[in-house]
Amino acid sequence: MPLIPHLHVLVSNRTYATCLQYHADEHAKTHMCTPRMTTDIFDGLHYCSLLGERVVVRDQTLTHHYFSDHHDIALGFATNGFTPFKKRKHTAWILLVFNYNLPPDECFKRDNILCVGIIPGPKKPWNADLFIHLLVQELLELAIGVPTYDALSSRCFALHAYLITAFGDIPAVSMIMHMKGHNSLCPCRMCEIQGICILNSRNRTLYVPLSHRNHPELTDVVEYRPERLPLCSHNSFMAQANAVESMPTEVQREKLAKAYGIKGVPLLSALGSLRFPQSFPYNFMHLIWENVTDCLTYLILTFLFCPSRSASVHDSGLLCPLLTYLWIDLAFSRDFHIRLCVPLSLILSLSVTFFRLPVASPVCVYKL
Ligand SMILES: [Zn+2]
């Protein structure tokens, strides 16, 4: 379904138009009372950095500013692959748009999520830009302004809507950002860390140790400090993407793409309201539930039941401080939901893992 007719209907309906004022009314009041509290996306650094900036469309700076009118709508975009049939051979990709102007407890409800397209399978799209092209065209029109009837004031005005974030799992976001992905030499979209592989091994899997001191291969990096990672900026990302595109031959282009982890300029960069990579945050569900929790459970169980496999980690004295640090960090998070997730996710993951492991017994739970 096209985006602009959908927004037309919302704004010209009195009930929905009232709900859309959450951003201008309710959130503004809460933010005035507690300016440092993060209640939703409008407290985020990216949204705040857009305020006061003039709208840019195709390298042209317009006269109006981002979110200067109370009608202006903030949108989010998400995509992910799913398997529509029981035999999980075929995949399709869904394209969703979220309306952040609705109250936070409403904007993620199924009735309020807009499906702007489905990329048919059976395989992952070779070029997702072909499928989001129409959406980007509509977003460019909305950045300029589309004449719309307002049900609240009973008058016509120029409706503006801006895409401020895009998310999904790592493969999906890598696809829309034109990045090589998490198995590449530069696996992270937020920073410029580089992977290394085991020398003289047939296993070419790359991994990213914090310290390269004990690695036999000489690299430019000696050590990564977690609190001071070499973060990417919008300008550096776009400079690298343009450099890759400007290469005269396919071989040179591929070589540079491998070095940067970027395959070319993404179509979404046409939208001046997006910043690369800040507008593409990592997804909480995949980070905590499906990665950190699984990884911690695996480490704990390996440590307890397979001392030989965990010997290298154990000998280096890293395991206990690492686990303690991670769990304490999560358990004392300022976010209530994260704190709640810690015991729940541990119990859930342990239960699942114990069913798979015949050596497990209730004594192990006590030990943990
Ligand atoms: Zn990173």
Protein architecture, described:
Strand 6 and strand 7 form a beta hairpin. This protein has 3 domains: 171 residues, no CATH class; 86 residues, no CATH class; 84 residues, no CATH class. The C terminus is likely disordered. The chain has 14 helices and 8 strands. It is globular and about 70 Å long. The chain is of the alpha+beta class and 368 residues long. Strands 5-4-3-8 form a 4-stranded mixed beta sheet. It is 41% helix and 14% strand. The chain binds zinc ion. Zinc ion binds next to loops.
Summarize the structure.
With 368 residues, the protein is of the alpha+beta class.
Q: Which labels suit this protein?
A:
368 residues, four-stranded mixed β-sheet, alpha+beta, 3 domains, binds zinc ion, 8 strands
Order of helices and strands: HHHHEEEEHEHEEEHHHHHHHH
Assembly state of the chains shown: single chain
How many domains in all? 3
Q: DSSP helix count?
A: 14
Structural class: alpha+beta
